[in-house]
Structure prediction request, 220 residues.
Amino acid sequence: MFIGHFAVGFGAKRFAPRSSMAVLLAAPQLADILWPIFVLTGWEQVRIDPGNTRFTPLDFVSYPWSHSLLMLCVWATAFGAIYYALSRYWPGTVAIWIGVVSHWVLDWVTHRPDMPLYPGGARYGLGLWNSIAGTMAVEILMFAAGVWMYARATRAKDRIGRYAFVAYVVLLLVIYIADAFGPPPESVAEIAWTAVAAVVVLIPWAWWFDRHRSSKDKPA
Ligand SMILES: [Zn+2]
Prediction:
């Protein structure tokens, strides 16, 4: 799952209006932020295997540290604890915890049974990725709902707040569709470095447009 994770971050703003979107989006993405790093260091393995599921050419051979339910609970607690120590803001802390763990649930829906409960444990997955139409319907609907919640919970203070946000949403949709219908990646290194580059661009960008929008205290 890709933009479905962003949906969770966008939706969280309503419940944690004082938290930056950089943090609220990083939480549900955390598994996919750690994963390319662990792939590059060789702790986790992925293989390019066109047709593995209809939606993705990737075979997630092993990713216990970034993608097991147990480790995501550990990462969620660590991220939440650091955030709470710095901010003393409970709604944001809770949104982070739920966001990080939500990654497992959403990937469990889309992946074939490769999502471990704990490192070395049984692996599960409902395999929505075997249907391109089903995957896109679920993810785009989720994304639309999350973006709509964010747009209602906040208000643009200036042109950056409006257009940098709209451009962000459009770019994510374009990447998502291009990824779904584009050719498979050439190498594992290309997958990992593309994922790292996406994080480096998308998280600060979210921080930027979010600073140019104000939260409505009482959503109408
Ligand atoms: Zn993932």
Notes: The first helix runs from residue 3 to 12. The mean pLDDT is 95.
